[in-house]
Amino acid sequence: NAQIIHSGAVIVTQAEPTVRQRFHQRYLMIGKAGKKDVDIKRDTSGKYWFNEYSPGSKRLCLYSLDPRTDKLTEYDILEAQLEVYKFLTSDDRLCVTALNSRGQYECIILDCSTGALLYRAVFPIKSNFVEYRFISHCIVDTRGKYWFATVKGLLCFDPKTQRWQTWQNSPGDTASLSENCTFSLCLDPRNPSKYL
Fold first, then answer.
1. Alpha-carbon distance 196 to 194, whole Å?
2. Which of 38, 74, 152, 153 is 20 to 30 Å from the Cα of 68, by its Cα?
3. Could you write out the DSSP letters of every residue in 59-81?
4. Given this model, what pLDDT does residue 161 score?
């Protein structure tokens, strides 16, 4: 029996032991073997963040595991999602992007220290581009805006106004992006080592 804790709009449960076992077997051992395609993040407090299908169901869940206490927590915020990617931001937030069952990309932002759901927003554009993943990079600027490098251009989400801005290539406009596919972002291109 899982204990359910409501944290904002996030349903948090104490995850089943089998998830913990799979985490240790798959993620920690694979990481030591040098496999690079495991999407696992570690926040500044040392907690691991990963997604996994819930045991006995086809429901995709987000988990955090605190190795100091061995506490494994399930965050029920993903609905039958694909292309789940996680980005840790400089302000200790976890930004999760995913393709939902309606064919829309979502941005879900959690506070790593509390696990609280801070923001949830649907990206303003869709992608049917299959050569690259839709979102390749995410950063947060000094004003708290989230910037996304995507195959459909540069997008910016402002949590304060809940609005998106989009920059794309416009043929003939030399002030527009030269290409829609963007792969990485840097807050200060004149001094990238400051952020890298």
1. 6
2. 38
3. -EEEEEEETTTTEEEEE----S-
4. 93
What does the pLDDT read at residue 31?
A: 46
Nearest-angstrom CA–CA distance, 35 and 29? 9
Q: Are 166 and 181 in contact (CB under 8 A)?
A: no
CA 100 from chain centre, in angstroms, equals 13
Q: Is the pLDDT of residue 157 over 90?
A: yes
Nearest to 80 by CA among 95, 97, 65, 61: 61
| The CA-based dihedral angle spanning residues 138, 140, 146, 152, taken in that order and rounded to the nearest 10 degrees | -30
Whole-structure pTM value: 0.74
134 Cβ neighbours under 8 A, 6+ residues apart:
83, 97, 99, 105, 127, 150, 151, 152
The pLDDT, as a whole number, for residue 55 is: 59
